[in-house]
Model the fold of this input.
Amino acid sequence: ILPKLEQEIDSMIIGGKKNIELNSSEAYGKYDEKAVQQVKREEFPEGTNLEAGMEFMASTPEGKPVPFVIKEVKDDDITIDFNHPLAGKNLSFDIELIDVRNATRDELEHGHVHGAGGHHH
Done:
Protein backbone atom coordinates (compact mmCIF):
# COMPACT_ATOMS: atom_id res chain seq x y z
CA ILE A 1 0.00 0.00 0.00
CA LEU A 2 1.23 3.50 -0.72
CA PRO A 3 2.73 5.01 2.45
CA LYS A 4 0.66 8.23 2.34
CA LEU A 5 -2.53 6.23 1.70
CA GLU A 6 -1.72 3.91 4.61
CA GLN A 7 -1.07 6.93 6.84
CA GLU A 8 -4.47 8.39 5.97
CA ILE A 9 -6.23 5.06 6.54
CA ASP A 10 -4.49 4.70 9.93
CA SER A 11 -6.23 7.90 11.05
CA MET A 12 -9.71 6.53 10.26
CA ILE A 13 -12.17 4.85 12.59
CA ILE A 14 -14.12 1.69 11.69
CA GLY A 15 -17.21 2.68 9.71
CA GLY A 16 -15.61 5.94 8.60
CA LYS A 17 -15.55 7.13 5.00
CA LYS A 18 -12.98 9.41 3.44
CA ASN A 19 -11.79 10.68 0.07
CA ILE A 20 -8.01 10.61 -0.10
CA GLU A 21 -6.18 12.58 -2.78
CA LEU A 22 -2.52 11.81 -3.50
CA ASN A 23 -0.38 13.84 -5.86
CA SER A 24 2.02 11.89 -8.07
CA SER A 25 4.98 12.40 -5.72
CA GLU A 26 2.96 10.77 -2.89
CA ALA A 27 1.90 7.91 -5.15
CA TYR A 28 4.12 6.37 -7.85
CA GLY A 29 6.38 9.36 -8.51
CA LYS A 30 6.80 11.67 -11.44
CA TYR A 31 6.93 10.28 -14.96
CA ASP A 32 10.60 9.91 -15.92
CA GLU A 33 11.39 10.25 -19.63
CA LYS A 34 14.78 8.61 -18.93
CA ALA A 35 12.90 5.40 -18.12
CA VAL A 36 11.71 5.20 -21.75
CA GLN A 37 14.15 3.41 -24.05
CA GLN A 38 14.40 2.08 -27.56
CA VAL A 39 15.56 -1.48 -28.10
CA LYS A 40 15.73 -3.76 -31.11
CA ARG A 41 13.21 -6.50 -31.78
CA GLU A 42 16.04 -9.04 -31.46
CA GLU A 43 16.10 -8.33 -27.69
CA PHE A 44 12.82 -10.26 -27.41
CA PRO A 45 12.31 -14.01 -27.84
CA GLU A 46 12.23 -14.98 -31.50
CA GLY A 47 8.73 -15.20 -32.95
CA THR A 48 7.12 -13.04 -30.25
CA ASN A 49 4.33 -10.90 -31.73
CA LEU A 50 5.04 -7.49 -30.16
CA GLU A 51 2.28 -4.92 -29.70
CA ALA A 52 1.92 -1.66 -27.82
CA GLY A 53 0.57 -2.24 -24.31
CA MET A 54 2.21 -5.63 -23.82
CA GLU A 55 3.90 -6.10 -20.45
CA PHE A 56 7.22 -7.87 -19.96
CA MET A 57 9.76 -8.44 -17.24
CA ALA A 58 13.46 -7.58 -17.50
CA SER A 59 16.19 -8.27 -14.95
CA THR A 60 18.76 -5.95 -13.45
CA PRO A 61 22.41 -7.10 -13.47
CA GLU A 62 21.77 -8.25 -9.88
CA GLY A 63 18.84 -10.40 -11.06
CA LYS A 64 16.07 -8.19 -9.68
CA PRO A 65 12.91 -8.33 -11.86
CA VAL A 66 11.86 -5.02 -13.42
CA PRO A 67 8.53 -4.74 -15.27
CA PHE A 68 8.15 -2.69 -18.44
CA VAL A 69 5.51 -1.96 -21.07
CA ILE A 70 5.88 -1.74 -24.84
CA LYS A 71 4.83 1.78 -25.83
CA GLU A 72 5.42 1.60 -29.58
CA VAL A 73 6.50 -0.86 -32.27
CA LYS A 74 8.06 0.52 -35.46
CA ASP A 75 9.57 -2.21 -37.61
CA ASP A 76 12.59 -3.45 -35.59
CA ASP A 77 12.59 -0.48 -33.17
CA ILE A 78 10.65 -1.12 -29.99
CA THR A 79 9.98 1.68 -27.48
CA ILE A 80 9.73 0.37 -23.92
CA ASP A 81 8.75 2.17 -20.72
CA PHE A 82 10.00 1.23 -17.25
CA ASN A 83 7.78 3.81 -15.49
CA HIS A 84 5.00 2.48 -13.28
CA PRO A 85 1.72 2.75 -15.24
CA LEU A 86 0.46 5.30 -12.67
CA ALA A 87 3.66 7.38 -12.58
CA GLY A 88 2.96 11.08 -13.04
CA LYS A 89 -0.70 10.71 -12.12
CA ASN A 90 -2.55 12.16 -9.17
CA LEU A 91 -4.73 9.52 -7.52
CA SER A 92 -8.06 9.72 -5.73
CA PHE A 93 -9.38 7.02 -3.38
CA ASP A 94 -12.86 6.76 -1.87
CA ILE A 95 -12.30 4.70 1.27
CA GLU A 96 -14.70 3.09 3.71
CA LEU A 97 -12.99 1.36 6.63
CA ILE A 98 -15.09 -1.70 7.40
CA ASP A 99 -12.81 -3.65 9.72
CA VAL A 100 -9.24 -3.94 10.98
CA ARG A 101 -7.41 -7.19 11.70
CA ASN A 102 -3.88 -8.33 12.36
CA ALA A 103 -1.89 -9.80 9.47
CA THR A 104 -1.67 -13.59 9.34
CA ARG A 105 1.68 -15.38 9.51
CA ASP A 106 1.42 -16.22 5.77
CA GLU A 107 0.71 -12.58 4.91
CA LEU A 108 3.72 -11.43 6.91
CA GLU A 109 5.92 -14.04 5.19
CA HIS A 110 4.65 -13.12 1.71
CA GLY A 111 4.66 -9.36 2.31
CA HIS A 112 1.08 -8.76 1.16
CA VAL A 113 -2.56 -9.26 2.13
CA HIS A 114 -4.39 -12.44 1.17
CA GLY A 115 -8.06 -12.46 0.27
CA ALA A 116 -10.84 -14.18 2.16
CA GLY A 117 -10.07 -17.89 2.28
CA GLY A 118 -6.30 -17.48 1.99
CA HIS A 119 -3.64 -17.34 -0.69
CA HIS A 120 -4.84 -16.43 -4.20
CA HIS A 121 -1.84 -15.85 -6.49
